[in-house]
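User: For documentation purposes, I need each entry recorded in a consistent format: the amino acid sequence on its own, followed directly by the corresponding structure tokens. There are two entries in this batch. Please keep commentary to a minimum and don't merge the entries.

Assistant: Recorded as requested. Entry 1:
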Amino acid sequence: MATRENRDKYRSVLEDTDQVQWRYGNPPEYSSVNQLFEEGQTKVWPEGSLEETVQNAIKSWEMEFSHKIRLQDFKTINPEKFKLFVNGREGLSAEDTLRLGSYNALLKNSLPKKFQYYKPEEESFESSHDAFRSALPRGFAWEILSVYSGPPVIAFKFRHWGYFEGTFKGHAPTGEMVQFLGLGVLKVDESLRAEEIEIYYDPGELFGGLLKGPPMTETKTTDSGDNTAEKQSCPFTH
């Protein structure tokens, strides 16, 4: 059980940890991304407002899909009815979303492979999270910019941002902010558990920043023994 000193004020579901099976053995710790959020947020919503409630609900939803391994431990969704729709594609069930991981679920697309910046079907849950933890070591902050309607169908606009301070798929860090904006529609039940989430955004906004870093090079020793030849690392084969 979380104490007053270490409680996460944005993710109250972390206070109820009894019998929860955590992916990495223990409840997650969000102090770094919380600091990033507080330093970079463009909106400060009144405590108890609909905007703050939705903002914290989405943060908690993301935490559960990233760190819990049993749907029976989830507090933020109705597992039997849950569907995630991204950019108008076919909905993913709670089981599918948990298996894929939130990054892979949100980054699935129907572009021809040669035009895909990131190939979710070639990534596991772990590799997808490792890729973005490496690229954005301080975390990937999320805020509500506007809420257009109240429950049970909540329409909202959001912003997602972080700083590209680590490597991403063979690209060197730039140290610059990467971000994207999007729209969402959240359908909730009488207990405010999510039944459906629709997300609309342009992945190019995110990957434009991550692929801006120059491709890293690696030294390759030639047959003659010298190591002057260099080969570019392919950004999609690591």
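Entry 2:
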Amino acid sequence: MVVPRSTKQLFEDNDSGLFSVTLFRKAVDDFRHKARENKFTVRDFHYNEEEMKADKEEMTRLCTDKKKQFGPLVRWLKVNFSEAFIAWIHIKALRVFVESVLRYGLPVNFQAMLLQPNKKNMKRLREVLNDLYKHLDSSAAVIDASMDIPGLNLSQQEYYPYVYYKVDCNLLDFKV
């Protein structure tokens, strides 16, 4: 007893969906019972024109507020993005320094480098760097990722005989 062609999907995510269904009055209880048997949640919707009008006004007010705040936000981001990026790179440099001292000890005798290889040359670069610096950490050749050594966290990141941190500068690609 559903009104023909009245079912509409309003929203869907990974594990649930929201549907609108129009029913005849005499079939509401039967529909609710059958839906609960199939593990659906049924909620009533009562049309109230005053609430709908208030919601529409709220949406237009929020849209105008968003448009007003967008310009100053963009200007603020242009000014402060460079400061945040510089701080982020400094933190990466501090991590390289600390990791080098912890791995190789004192006195500090190392050179930090920033490399940007092509994707097709990445494997070859890793092989060359491993050959050049395998003498620095003899345990790196013996360690495999299946071994669980406390403090190394090999399951979370790869381990090389040199200190390696990835700096992903493509900040426009969002990974959800």
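Summary note for entry 2:
Helices lie at 28-37, 49-104, 122-133, 139-142.
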